[in-house]
Amino acid sequence: MLSCRELKHIMVVGCIAIALSACTPEPAVLASNGEAHTWIDAPLDGSRHPLAPVSIQTHASNPQGIVEFEYRLDGDLITIHDASAGANELAHDELLWEPDFAGSYLLQVRTRSAADDWGEAAGVRIDIGDPTPTFTVEPEETAPEPEPSPTSEVAVVLLPPTFTPPVFHFQGRDCPQQSAVIQIRVDPPGAVYNMILFLRFSDAASGYDSGWDSGHSMSAEGGGSYRYIITSAGLPDFSSDVNLIVRTQFVATGADGEQLVRSPVYTDLRLSTRCSE
Fold first, then answer.
1. Is the residue at 17 inside a domain?
2. Residue 235 resides in a domain
3. Is the domain of 161 the same as that of 267?
4. What is the count of structural domains for the chain?
5. How many CA atoms lie within 13 A of 121 on its CB side?
6. What element of type H or E holds 14?
7. By three-state DSSP, how is residue 49 classified?
8. Do 166 and 103 lie in a common domain?
9. What CA–CA distance (Å, rounded) separates 174 from 71?
10. Cross-strand partners of 180
11. What 3-state DSSP class applies to 59?
12. Alpha-carbon torsion, ordered 60, 61, 66, 71, to 10 deg
């Protein structure tokens, strides 16, 4: 029979083991392939980050030894890092990734063993940039003439927008152009406080229509010019050939959020699954 002293010692050791297991942090994402494992420790899945460099921290284990870490963004290869400590069973790695523009991104990491086997990829989806603001104005299919403002005698004119290129492609494919730059100018410069862009994607052949979105605040470039970079992020990944018409409408607002002028609806921009456009 155990003495009181022995029982007390067993209880203390057990409590310490339970406390240590409770303090062990869980990895954000784990990809497992048999005895091979890959973790993404940071960033966390579903997290939001400013438009600035993001540290991707990962580690992996494989009894055959880890020799390479492969990083992908929305399915496209970013870079491959050699394991810093050689072909060890447990390896750590870090990549400082700088996003080009705001949006939603899928980051994936997988590892290669010394036996030349690639493990399954671990992935996290993160958001870059501030959330889309809520605007009091909404898009319209037609653009009626705005009522004159009693506080301003300046006539605000929106010049026709430009789309560069006029056709862009879905991300994650091998198409060379996966974004487009939308620009518009206001005359006179400095006459508006904010320029809001509304987007709508539709395809008559398939019947797909996204409806108007909630609007995007465009970046002021100076001289009355405003800019926005559009990508296919967030849209369905169509498996068949699709040419979506991208409808755009622009609304210039004052400092109090009042509408100053609204553009017509433009249909000059397309989003295609084909790279031959």
1. no
2. yes
3. yes
4. 2
5. 14
6. helix 4-23
7. strand
8. no
9. 17
10. 230
11. strand
12. -20
What kind and span of H or E run contains 9? helix 4-23
- The radius of gyration of the chain's CA atoms, rounded to the nearest angstrom, is 26
pLDDT one digit per residue (tens) for the chain, 277 residues: 545 545 444 444 444 444 434 444 444 555 555 567 899 999 998 888 888 889 999 988 888 888 899 999 888 888 999 887 666 688 888 999 888 777 778 899 999 888 888 888 899 988 887 665 555 666 766 544 444 444 445 688 999 999 999 998 886 666 777 889 999 999 998 888 899 999 999 988 878 888 888 889 999 888 999 999 998 877 777 767 788 999 999 999 988 888 899 999 999 999 988 875 4
Q: Which two tokens stand for residue 45?
A: 């899945």
- Which residue type sits at 254? G
Answer yes or no: is 59 within a domain: yes
- Write out the residue range of the structural domain in which residue 259 sits: 157-272
What is the distance between the terminal CA atoms of the chain, rounded to a whole angstrom? Answer: 84
State the Cα–Cα distance between residues 208 and 41, nearest whole angstrom.
38
CATH number for the domain harbouring residue 248: 2.60.40
Please write down the long-range contacts of 112-115, taking CB distance under 8 Å and 24 or more positions apart.
Answer: 112/66, 112/67, 112/68, 112/70, 113/36, 113/62, 113/64, 113/65, 113/66, 113/67, 113/87, 114/64, 114/65, 114/66, 114/67, 114/87, 115/64, 115/65
CATH number assigned to the domain comprising residue 70: 2.60.40.10
